[in-house]
Amino acid sequence: MHFSSEHITIFLLSIAMMLLFAKVFGELFTLIKQPAIIGEIIAGIILGPTIFGTIFPDSYNYIFNHSEQVNIALNGFITLSVVLLLLISGLEVDLAVVLSHGKKAIYTSFFSLIIPFSLGFLISYYFPNLFGIVESNSNLIFPLFMGAALSISALPVIAKVLMDLKIFKSEVGFIIISSAMLNDLAAWLIFSLLLGSISNSSGSVSFSTTITLTLIFIGFSLTIGKKIFNSIIPFLQDNISYPGGILNFILILGLFSSAFTEFIGIHSIFGAFIIGIAIGDSVHLKEQTREIVHQFVSNIFGPIFAVSIGLKINFIASFNLQTILIILFLGYLVKIFGAGIGSYFSGLKKNESLAIGFGMSARGEMGIILSILALEVGIINEEVFVALVIMALVTSITSAPFMKFFLKEKDKLKLDNLLKEKFIFFSTATTKEEVIFELASVAAKEMNLDKDFVFSQIMEREEILPTGIANFLALPHAKIEIKEPFIALAITKNGIDFEANDNNLSRIIILLLTPSNQNEIQLELLSKIAKTFENIEFSKKLITAKTQTEILKMIRKS
Amino acid sequence: MHFSSEHITIFLLSIAMMLLFAKVFGELFTLIKQPAIIGEIIAGIILGPTIFGTIFPDSYNYIFNHSEQVNIALNGFITLSVVLLLLISGLEVDLAVVLSHGKKAIYTSFFSLIIPFSLGFLISYYFPNLFGIVESNSNLIFPLFMGAALSISALPVIAKVLMDLKIFKSEVGFIIISSAMLNDLAAWLIFSLLLGSISNSSGSVSFSTTITLTLIFIGFSLTIGKKIFNSIIPFLQDNISYPGGILNFILILGLFSSAFTEFIGIHSIFGAFIIGIAIGDSVHLKEQTREIVHQFVSNIFGPIFAVSIGLKINFIASFNLQTILIILFLGYLVKIFGAGIGSYFSGLKKNESLAIGFGMSARGEMGIILSILALEVGIINEEVFVALVIMALVTSITSAPFMKFFLKEKDKLKLDNLLKEKFIFFSTATTKEEVIFELASVAAKEMNLDKDFVFSQIMEREEILPTGIANFLALPHAKIEIKEPFIALAITKNGIDFEANDNNLSRIIILLLTPSNQNEIQLELLSKIAKTFENIEFSKKLITAKTQTEILKMIRKS
């Protein structure tokens, strides 16, 4: 069986088409602030049997269903792509983060895993007909799979959403990320063992050997292996060609591990994922290296995989509304319930818990990869597959808006919500130090802090770079160990020199204190305040105000 | 025919092995200052039937000759790798450079193409038995191929060698590069048409159509296509995700073009190469973009291809010393003769012409890709293939040492070769200006330049950054329009303040003038001079010297 010139033509053409569609839709989705991968998956559905294959069946078959040779070559390339995709997902997992966030992370992780898994398992075990499965097969494969599919989270999508919402480094962000990591790890493990138990096609080892070797592999990779990488990586980064050398090192390890796990009877991507975690945990791995590997994989292998999903199946022909709605409902329910309960019990507020629940409901590419493998080995039928893909897409798209809605923090970040009458005062101060001390005293009283300490923190920042803006506004600020942002406002009778851009003396002095670990919030509030005062007429009016109430009203109306 | 779990295991394992060996040997060769690709090719010979396959035939067959499925999947991946490799080779071609270097480049390009091609053609036509071909086949295929194989140059390898020798931007460097570009373009064109004429396996179009479409494709790509890319690229670089967007744009275009050329009956890699030229010619393509594409391809696809060469064949079994020696001899002869004559006629010196001849003899991966394709379609047998690969390797390895040998410039870049007695004098100057004017006068007289002009050039540099080094040495320097570096030395009776690092006044004032287009030479000479004086005892001794002869002797011995 020869790989002829015609096969080469079609092979190259199909990859070119896949990349082209992936890129166009990926960019479009980036424009509307959605993860590119969602656009890429939709590109695949358009390019696949669902749309292109239905409208132009001949062209579709010529390009994407040409011959066994081309199919195998494409299959090989797609396999490689998924392996590399899981490798970089693994790199993003940082097990230390889970532990470092103590009770809250552990509670949330645990419940967001156990509840979806149990609910998924029980519902599919007792009501298989909900998923269009009529014959009562007594085995546990399908229920176990549904448990795993519902308990997985899409770490890459979730990370992207958190970054977009600027809460990646907030407490809620950390809890979501660490729970998602643990969910992924556990769900993959369960699923890989499941696959191992049913697909004996490699036939090389028995199931008990598979389990033993898997546990040894995980144990070794995440302890001794991790330590070895951690000591080799700095050497490689310094002594072989950079970035080529380290990139290759990571790819080679990923490929060997995936070949190994495939050989012992669990799926190749599990090996890539675990070794990714082991490598990514190294404190010596430069951020730049991580970024390069990421760019490398996500610019060709990622899109190729994403598009290939849609090529598998006709989504319209296998579209079963009932199955979709049930799985979609379950998809939200189990995570909101599981992750939400976990975080609520751990002491988070109700709205935060709901936000975490919706955030973790995003299944993204992780859920889809699981579904593809399950479809391939016959655990699920095409209708359930379509429903799972749609559930993964919908939950991923909705996670950001829902989180935004529940995290009222975002709305709280408004000047008029933070500023209260008691934090507004009229001052006769004549120097920077004087007025800042008055403001610091108000803040210190409110938050039970030492006022000299608060004062020194603000002055330290002020001395580096004076905070006079323009239009009579000065904006002294500091990051300190507090939970919520704090704003106080002084109207001074005398102008004070804060070295404003327009050389005017400042009359409206607003103090902004923000939690020390939340850089984005400080920046956002600073820019909001500056924006409020960008019109000089507003400043002039504010200065003439006679009472705190009047000032607050003006700011609310602005 | 299913791509089973076992196939996946072997597919991933074989890629991991290929990358691992490629990386190890590539790094080793980088260490000994050879292009990585040579190490990667040797890694393939070790991993292939020649060594690994002979010693452990079972393991070899299990990994690299496992089943049709794995072979096809690997084949697809390797095809993709070669296409991308040619794409980046095309990006490196800058047709404008050829024209901008006028007569010299055009002469050299022309002769370095026409002589190797004619000699290769004639010798293989009249003496096919030299290559072990006994049956007298009247057709022209083999002679035409040998013409193309001998006239090609390895642009990537040559560029690397020139950079290592620090003459990439010298006149000789430009001539070599521009000739290599033209050679590559022409040789690929000839060979692609040759392939088109014999392999009608795609069967889609007739040979005359192939020629017509090829010419249209080249014409279109290098004129209208080039203009279109040139205007699209800035838009893409600014408006879509960077670098992912532009990287994908280049890859997608490359893949479509290669599919197109494969379809019309010439090889896929020709399309990638031509479109690479068209894209690379865009003045708007950022250097960073070029670098990223390069990194992307050369870190996984490049090594995979390089290793795959050795996997094709047992180099020892097909080792025919006579064939190898003849092809090696021809490989050197035709290029030294062709490129050498061309550059000599164009007015370059004999040693420079010889250097160009040896430089252009490097066939690198280009010659090998040609040979692989020729082997696959049966134009050459395995013995000729092995000989061509060895010729490509040997000419690539030797090009740097030979060039170094003939470009005596490198040896001339020694202090004691440049410094002559008549350029050494004792001065009673007391100021910077005075001594620099004396030095400038010596230089101006020697080179027939205006001394005020030379003085002002040196002072301009001096005023930006004083050139006092340490150990009584000052090193005023300038780049001006001269052909050869110039050095003059003054020993001053009085110390002069050149603001040296050790705060000592300077007594040894060395003037260095270098050709204005040769940055590397200036840097090299500056560092050599500074190094000569890094021991203060040497400076002290030199200051006590009584005669020019004594000074020169001391410097020679240093």
Structure description:
2 copies of one chain form a homodimer. Chain A has 558 residues and is mainly alpha-helical. Chain A folds into 2 domains: 406 residues, Na+/H+ antiporter like fold (Up-down Bundle), CATH 1.20.1530; 145 residues, Mannitol-specific EII, Chain A (3-Layer(aba) Sandwich). The first copy, chain A, is built from 25 helices and 5 strands. In chain A, helix 7 packs antiparallel against helix 8 and helix 11 packs antiparallel against helix 12. At the A-B interface, helix 1, helix 5, helix 12 and helix 14 of A face helix 1, helix 5, helix 12 and helix 14 of B.
What topology does this entry show?
Two copies of one chain form a homodimer.
Chain A: H1 5-31, H2 36-47, H3 52-55, H4 57-64, H5 68-92, H6 95-100, H7 102-126, H8 141-151, H9 155-164, H10 171-198, H11 207-239, H12 244-263, H13 268-280, H14 287-311, H15 321-345, H16 350-360, H17 364-376, H18 382-406, H19 409-412, H20 415-418, E1 424-427, H21 432-447, H22 451-464, E2 473-474, E3 477-480, E4 486-496, E5 506-515, H23 519-532, H24 536-543, H25 548-557
